[in-house]
Give the backbone structure.
Amino acid sequence: MAVDITLLFKASVKTVKTRNKAIGIGFESTKDEIFKRSRPKSGFSPRAKEVITNITKLKDFLLQHRKDYVSAGSLISSDLSRMTDNDRDQIDQDAQIFMRTCSEAIKLLRSEAEKQVMSAQIKEHRGAVLDLIETYLKGVCKLYSEQRAIRVKRMVDKKRLSRLVPEHHSPVEKKVEVEPTEEDTIKEESSEKTTSSEVQDNPVNLWEESRVEDELSPEEIQMFEQENQRLISEMNSLVDEVRQIEGKVVEISRLQEIFAEKVLHQEAEIDNIHQLVVGATENVKEGNEDIREITSKAAEVAACLGSCQLRRR
Amino acid sequence: PVVLSAISAASSTTVELNIALKRMLNFNAPPLKNTAAEPVWKVLIYDRFGQDIISPLLSVKELRDMGITLHLLLHSDRDPIPDVPAIYFVMPTEENIDRICQDLRNQLYESYYLNFISAISRSKLEDIASAALAANAVTQVTKVFDQYLNFITLEDDMFILCHQNKELISYHAINRADIQDTDMEAIMDTIVDSLFCFFVTLGAVPIIRCPRGNAAEMVAVKLDKKLRENLRDARNSLFTGDSMTAGQFSFQRPLFVLVDRNVDMATPLHHTWTYQALIHDVLDFHLNRVVMEEGMGVEPSPAGARPKKKSRKTYDLTAADKFWQKHKGSPFPEVAESVQEELDTYRAQEDEVKRLKSIMGLEGEDEGAISMLSDNTAKLTSAVSSLPELLEKKRLIDLHTNVATAVLDHIKSRKLDVYFEFEEKLMSKSTLDKSLLDIISDPDAGTPEDKMRLFLIYYITAQQAPSESDLEQYKKALLDAGCDLSPLNYIKQWKAFTKMAATPANYGNSGVKPMGLFSRVMNTGSQFVMEGVKNLVLKQHNLPVTRILDNLMEMNSIPRNKNPFQEAIVFVVGGGNFIEYQNLVDYTKSKQGKKVVYGCSELFNASQFIKQLSQLGQK
């Protein structure tokens, strides 16, 4: 187990101080402290810390509103959720702007660090600091994209459930409110299907009618039964379809995340390759020059030898 | 924090070490679990000792993840970076202290966290205090710690004392004829300091057992004294109360067995057949890192062209490498098979991903295609997200293919399987189907060193020394093969001395009566009691060190305590190797619920050991 000897160290400092006093050596303490502070303090560190503070603000902001953002409110009452969709859109927008700003700030610091002349160690240190900040930013962005994915999923869920609600609940207002949207979605999705529009109007009429009339003729009953069966099977297939789509949407959003990451990776690698190619071109150029030198020197030597031989003869 | 299983009675050193290092690198505070925490950056300054301790446990990436932007050697040119805190991890030597004082005077960093690998003396602490005062940097020295980490953990259950300067405490250093008392004292102090640190880190006071009359006993006595002194001072003891980590649940003191290398001289020379031990024997393997040259074979190059540079590749064999963890103790043929299996599995997975790529080109015209598409979307998502895993798998497969191929090349060119088989037969006193002379004289089998190793094992394990004429014959054959005979001189001396020390070997320990059984083991220690090995399939047999441990663990050695030991640490003074380690690992596997840790003062392969024997034989 490690032993903390900081206090021992401080005690040693006192010992040395007293010893020095006794011998007569004194160290000016307070004056130099002030001068020490005026060491060249580069702008890098405070600015880097500022970016971190900003990212932390974003993180706190996201976490603070996360519960409200993610809660879909009660699925039954559509207007008592604590956050409207507009609010959520606003949060999304703000978060995106913030993330972009932070990313730009990091890029700026990096390009400045490139331009400045400083020792290799400081350069490496600053590069690593910026890498750390970027990783932090990525982590916070992940928070954002996670809750956004949840929101999307909930929206799809809500749509699906809200379409099925009228089958189980009786309040008419509910139906009237919900059905138009249901009809819209049905219209959209079944555009390829050969569903006649009468069928869509009929459900409303049928149900209202059934409450008004007490008796129905046997033919009507049969017809209604058939209609019911058809409607049930249609609904089921639509439910399946919507389930598929919902799954796809979630997967697509996940894929998008992954692909975005990969593209960023590739960008870095392409930069790398570019640098390597530039380096290689340089090497080849130098190599060619070397070869030219050598051939010209060889030519000289040959010429000399030729002239020597001539002279000898 | 350590997740303790109720079964294991004590925690492992690697875990403790990891915790200790991570804490140190977090400004001596427990690291936060929250991964989305703000990054704090720092630079790490170490000496070569510190580097050797950290590098087997933490990769550069892990250091970066902890916020370390630069890691630099203490004695290197370092530029001032005035806005960053610096964490130092160094030995408290004179030159290191001087350099730290210099750093303080030059105002290199914003603040200083000084961590000393072993305890710093009061006077050196005052030197730093003095420099800090002179430089007005006292407030900048934020923390000073004695880390007690003066040893290197290579595996969860294996440690060595040091890598730098190991010649100071090598077998040669301890056993040379011209050693002075002061030299010996210094060596013993070094060893004891490290062992003390080990037990402080483990958080347990061991029960020490060792044979009498050699270097191991000296170490045992000194260690015992140091432990007692520390325990006596209850206020400052390192083994009580809050200095122990929260997870310590050692209900029983562990057994600490100290043995001297001289108890078994054949194992360090033995040719081996398990993966890790083979790598250590034939390749360049230090601190869990293999260094290999690629591009074997000489190509005739046209005159005047620059010679083709051989690229050096380094591979780190870590705890995260699942294949390595599974197979480092496996016999080599099994390893080769498994690499092939892994390669096949990987190729199948790769093909799956490729197939998905072609399917995604579908236009989705009919129902079947649409449903297949959504099914494949899910597959693609999982394939894409498992890509990093796949790439990592590929990297490891490449690594092990290269390493195993290199090992196999050595086996084939030197006929190491022949040597292994023969030596196993020698050690188990089975009948030999070839003559020793044949192997030595065979120009195709092995390097001169291989032949010398084989002969020395023969000599060591022989019941009776060969006759003079036989010996001359062997010597001539060895010289013809190009061997250096000086190790033989030393082994002769050793053998003679071992025979002399046939007096009952008593235990030196913390006050318990001597064990007669050990003396018997001591005398017959060179005999490996082991069945014959067939087809180079390793059968479990116990090497001398393992047998010593087994005897001790099974006995009820403390009068009041009737329970056999659950945890033991075996330490070889004078050096050890992976063969011994592997043997202990295999032994431990066969014993439910027991935990054994292996340590040695230095780690050498046969080549390095023979060099030391050669030096000793030349005096």
